[in-house]
Structures are given as structure tokens and as C-alpha cells.
Amino acid sequence: MHRFVTLTLCAAMIAVVGCSSENGHGTPKVTKVTKIAPGADAQTKLQEALINAKPGEVIELAEGKYDFNQTVSLDAIDGVTIRGAGPGKTVISYGQQIAGGGGEGIKVDGCKNFAIEGLTIEDTRGDGIKTTKCEGVVYRNLLIQWTRGPHPDNGAYGVYPVLCQDVLIEDCKVTDCSDAGVYVGQSKNCIVRRCHAERNVAGIEIENTIGADVYDNVATDNAGGLLIFSLPGLEQKVGSQCRCYKNQVFANNHENFAKPGNIVATVPPGTGMIIMANDQVEVFDNDIKDNNTSNLSIISYMATGVKTRDQLAKDDPGYDPYPEGIYIHDNRIADGGKSPGGEFGKVAKAILGEDFPDILYDGVVDETKFVDGKPREELRVVIVNNGNADFSNFNYGALASGDIPKPNGDLAPHAGSLPPLPAITIPGME
Questions:
Q1: 155 is in which domain, residue-wise?
Q2: Which residue from 54, 68, 135, 186 lies 20 to 30 Å from 343 (Cα-Cα)?
Q3: Quick one: three-class SS letters along the chain?
């Protein structure tokens, strides 16, 4: 009770003086409030405010529409908050963004304790909001959208932290991205909660990230709903320790409108959730249903068909392309695979038939890590207690070798349990 009262009083004081946070990433003490209203000079005023900002400064954007034509940026200033009157009330439109004026709407680099909340950003040429090499980042109560609807020339990402640490993304809605709506890349210690991703190529994507909790989100009407990827050729090699729970991932059957050559262009329409080449992933207490290709897929990077195992070993020897330590349990998974799509759907129908199982596994494992001819216990793929969800190991290794694969629907090799992953906590954030 004492803790609740303390937090309540602290939240009430933020609007006046702020709460001090000498440790962790809580709201810094407010040192100054700069107010900006819509108008012809609003973009200039906002950029000047960000250039001259002091630690702890809050920049408030009043209700109304702002027409910006260039990226607005913040570099290496700590403790800055950009705050609107609420999504749909404070709207920053980049519909007239000029060539050479940057691609992002708002770009933040090398900052600590940065927060952005309570506004809409729409129609950027590139990403909506990008933070790079920041520590202590909050994206809260945002709407990122492209008003023309799904299009390959829309920005790739809506909410886009990359190479960041201690990231909280909450209560955000993102639509119509040509890559991923809510994206966390090459970051550490992240939480994505209560977000809504719709009509993107990928709804929510956690890529090459270490330590992520993804919960209470909705992903629907994307080509792929929720993706947990590790890709080669990146600075942070392999993602691990990701918990996904209490999410609703349903009817992700939108066409894939990504530009050709992008890795996300390989995601088959009708994909609910994919775990690719990530380690230590726990998926539980989710509702995953009505995704026409597959409700849930667990695959190695080789299943993309982009590179073989030998090519990966040569090009990026530090990259591990295998999904290991995967624990799928106690979910409600149903009615997937009724109308498989994409190139994968065309090829796999010859193996799996016209209807695909709810859960697909490519069966590709790293035999160099075996002990006594079996995967080590902590590297197993465990799939248990998922209602009536059906399953197939479609034996991609045989297909890649030119042999005829023999799908196996036996879940017995995937029985048992793995230790539950720890919760992600961000110092100073509840």
C-alpha cells in the first residue's frame, strides 16, 4: 500500500515538478517546459528546442495538426521528453516531406532517458520514430500510420529502437508499415506491451535482441503477426531470452507488400508467429488463431532459402542460424493453415498437403552440439499443452539436400519442459 501511494503521488507531481530519478530510468526531474503550438514556424521551433534542450526538459506540442517537411532530430542530450496532447489530437504529418530532408519523422541518437508520448506521426518517407544507441527509452501512447494504406513505398518501421538498452514500448498503435510496425532491433532489456499492430508486413518484430518481454499486445491483419528473428550480418549476433505471453495474434492474412529483396518479403501471408534462429524463447498463454498459412512456425535461417549453412558459416562465422531452447506451452492455438500463401505455401503444399498444421517446425538442428546423439536439454524445442493444435516437423534439411522430406506429426520428441525465463525489468520503470 505504501508503494502504491508513493507511486501515485509521484505521478501526480510530474506535471508540476517531476520526480527525481538519480538511479535507473525513471522520469527525470523536470527542469523546463517548452510549449509549441501549430503554425508555419512550428517545425523550426521544435528543432531549435531540441538543439537547445537541457536535461529534464519537457517539450509540449499543443493539440492540432503540424505539417513538417524534414526529419526532426535530437542528439546526445539526456532526459528530454516530447509530449503531445494525445494521439489523434497532436498530429505531425510528413505528407510533404522533401527529398533530402531525411527519412524519419523524429530521429534520436545517443541519448539517455528519452521519452516520446501522446501524439500521432503519419506519412513519413522512412521510419516513424527512430532511436539509435540510446539508454532508457520510452515510446508511450503513440499512433504511427500511413494514411494511403498499405504500400511498398511506405516507411519501413513505425516504432524503431535499434542498438538501444532499457526500452519500454507501451500503448502504441502502428499501421501500414512496409516492414515492421513495432520493431526492436539489436537491443537489450526491452518491454513491448499493450500495443496494436495492424496492416503491416510484420506486426511486431523482435530482432537480434537480448532480453525482451512481449505481452498484452494485439497483432492482426498483418502478413506476419509476431516475429522473433535473428538475422546474419549484424553487430549484435543472435537474439535470446524472449518471453511472449498474453498476446492476441489472429487473422494475419494480409498480402505481403514489402519491397522485393527485403528479408521480410519472404514472410508468407497468413503467418501468425515465427521464431527464427533465436535462442531461449518462451511462448505461453497466448491466443493464436485463424492465420491461414501457419499459426506458429519455428525455423532455422536456412528455411528462408536465402543462404545455405555453408554460406552462412563463411560469410558470418559468429552467427548461429538455429532456434534453440524454444519452449511453447499452455497457449490457445487453433484454426491455422486453412489457406497457405506465399512461395513457401506453394512449395510446402507438396509436402504438407492443402491444409497446414497449426505449428510448423523445420527440424533443422546443429548436430555439433549433440551429446550422445541428442540435443542438450537446454537446446531442445519443447511443445506442450497447446490445446488441440496439430503439429508437423516438415524436415527442411531433406528438402534443402534435394531429397523428399517426410513430415512427422509426432510431438513426443518435444515433450517435457524447460526452465521458465526470468521477467525483464527496467530500472526506474514499472
A1: 146-414
A2: 186
A3: CHHHHHHHHHHHHHCCCCCCCCCCCCCCCCCEEEEECCCCCHHHHHHHHHHCCCCCEEEEECCEEEECCCCEEEECCCCCEEECCCCCCEEEECCCCCCCCCCCCEEEECCEEEEEEEEEEECCCCCCEEEECCEEEEEEEEEEECCCCCCCCCCCEEEEEECCEEEEEECCEEECCCCEEEEEECCEEEEEECCEEECCCEEEEEECCEEEEEECCEEECCCEEEEEECCCCCCCCCCEEEEEECCEEECCCCCCCCCCCCHHHHCCCCEEEEEECCEEEEEECCEEECCCCEEEEEECHHHHCCCCHHHHHHHCCCCCCCCEEEEEECCEEECCCCCCCHHHHHHHHHHHCCCCCCEEECCCCCHHHCECCECCHHHCEEEECCCCCCEEECCHHHHHCCCCCCCECCCHHHCCCCCCCCCCCCCCCC
